[in-house]
Amino acid sequence: MRHNFIDRYASLDSPLHILEARSKLLAFTALIISVLCVPMNGGGLFFAYFFATAILMGISQIPLSFILARTFVILPFIVLASLAVPWRGFLGFGVLFVRAILCLMLLILLTNTTRFSELLRGLRKLGCPRILALNLGFLYRYLFVLTEEAMRMKLARDCRRVGRAPIRKELNILSSMLGTLLIRSFERAERMHCAMLSRGYSGDFPVVSPRRFTWHDMAFLSGVMLFIALTFIVL
Predict the structure, then answer these.
(1) Can you tell me the distance from the alpha carbon of 4 to that of 121, in angstroms, rounded to the nearest whole number?
(2) Using one digit for the tens of pLDDT, what is the confidence trace for 133-182?
(3) How confident is the model at residue 33 (pLDDT cuts 50, 70, 90)?
(4) Nearest-angstrom CA–CA distance, 149 and 147
(5) Phi, psi (deg, nearest 5) at residue 38
(6) Long-range contacts of 119-128 (CB under 8 A, 24+ apart)
(7) Alpha-carbon distance 135 to 168, whole Å?
(8) Please, what is the end-to-end C-alpha distance for the chain in angstroms?
(9) Could you give the CA distance from residue 105 to residue 62 in angstroms, rounded to a whole number?
């Protein structure tokens, strides 16, 4: 099962990929906050941020089809969220829709230009609580394991029956499967924990050849901050 669904293109070697995680975390977070702060009548600001996002997409060398596909997957939820503010009319709907699209594209760029382990390391260096970073790391590493286990259980269920059962029986089967999956996840977690301790796990995941904060990172971060300041001053 493919489990690089978050950082599939993080192994590329573009100018954006070689930057240290902290500079990208700060820069993309600043861009996202700036997008959320754009006023309702800030059409020029939205165009400027779309232009900047397009430049970052070109620099990152991530396929445009991949970014658009990921965006379209979340598109129904964005539309539903936009419809939740009908009192602002069509203008409010459009502004919220554009904000959501921009923020989503920026997040896709961030997660696909930085390995997840490097993102967690950058969060730790920026002051993120250790327990939160560890939980995010375990979630990313083992979520696909539970998903694969659930798929095997579903396949076993389908092989042992013909046709569909009544709704009530389907719900009973589903509840039994969820209970079994919960028990198996506890048992697997115990085995994984023992295996990690036997291999010298001390509470942190080592990062092979971690990147260092260099003048390239400072230049990128300064350029993003200057762009944000200029857009709000000029536009």
Answers:
(1) 18
(2) 888 888 887 877 888 888 888 888 878 776 677 778 778 888 888 888 88
(3) very high
(4) 5
(5) -65, 130
(6) 119/21, 119/25, 120/205, 121/21, 121/207, 121/210, 122/20, 122/21, 122/22, 122/24, 122/25, 123/21, 123/25, 125/22, 126/22, 126/25, 126/26
(7) 36
(8) 47
(9) 12
Q: Count Cβ atoms below 10 Å from residue 72 Cβ, excluding itself.
A: 10
pLDDT in tens, 13-28: 899 999 999 999 999 9
Which residues, other chains included, contact 86 with Cβ-Cβ below 8 Å and sequence gap of 6+? 93
Per the listing, tokens 């009548």 go with 41
Token look-up 């694969």 returns: 148
State the Cα angle at 201 between 195 and 205, rounded to 5°. 115
Give CA 188 to chain center in angstroms: 25
Q: Side chain identity at 233, as an amino acid letter?
A: I
Distances (CA, A) of 155 to 161, 177, 222: 10, 12, 52
